[in-house]
Design brief:
Elements (H helix, E strand, L loop, with lengths): L6 H13 L37 H14 L14 H10 L3 H25 L8 H8 L13 H18 L3 H6 L16 H6 L2 E3 L2 E2 L1
Helix pairs in contact: 3-6, 4-5, 4-6
Length: about 210
């Protein structure tokens, strides 16, 4: 049986899975310090319904522009912002769990650095810059091991932002199509792996060792 999983359901699962190792019950209700009720994973939530979102309007513009620097539109797929990756990132950094809150500080500080750098170099907001100017700002922070020591913090931000952008994009239908991922699709029949593949791993047939 195959089941389709949409992006928002994936987001809910990821957030809940990230939280589970850290959620503990205490013997006394008075001393418990939790985060509230867990999300109902059978519901479909609108942005901001699980918890208040973090990004202000201008921050979302900067975030969307940077998402598209990481994953721009091409002949095969839309850009990251076009499939709602900014919503994913905003929900992620707004979640009340330790890892997400750590990312929240990193992302907000990094977005401010990006805007400050755009104003310092070009006297414009980041979203108004050309593609070449985006590259100029990002090229020194896009690979942390080679970033100058003075840019260690922005490089850490960019690395984490790139990871979150990719996570958000490649859990969408467009992202899975871009990867040519063929899972989550119902099949009328399943013939099993080709015989040459089974033979390559030492099997004559399913469950049969050569």
């Amino acid at each position: 049986m195959s089941m389709r999983v949409d992006r928002r359901t994936t987001i809910k699962w990821v957030l809940t899975a990230a939280a589970m190792p850290r959620l503990q019950r205490t013997a006394s209700a008075e001393s418990a310090r939790g985060y509230g009720m867990d999300p109902d994973l059978l519901r479909i939530y609108s942005p901001g319904e699980l918890w208040p979102l973090t990004l202000a309007a201008q921050q979302r513009v900067t975030a969307a522009t940077l998402c598209d620097v990481v994953i721009p539109a091409d002949a095969h797929s839309p850009s990251a912002s076009a499939v709602g990756v900014v919503d994913f990132i905003d929900e992620w950094i707004s979640a009340p769990y330790p890892r997400q809150q750590q990312d929240r500080e990193l992302i907000l500080t990094g977005l401010k650095w990006i805007e400050d750098e755009a104003h310092r170099r070009y006297s414009k907001v980041f979203a108004a810059l050309s593609a070449a100017e985006h590259v100029t700002i990002c090229e020194q922070i896009c690979y942390a091991p080679q970033a100058p020591a003075a840019l260690a913090a922005p490089a850490a931000f960019f690395g984490r932002y790139r990871d979150l952008t990719a996570a958000g994009f490649y859990t969408t239908p467009a992202g899975r199509k871009d990867l040519q991922y063929v899972g989550n699709v119902a099949l009328a029949t399943f013939e099993g792996p080709p015989r040459e593949v089974l033979e390559a791993v030492g099997l004559n047939g399913i469950g049969e060792i050569q």
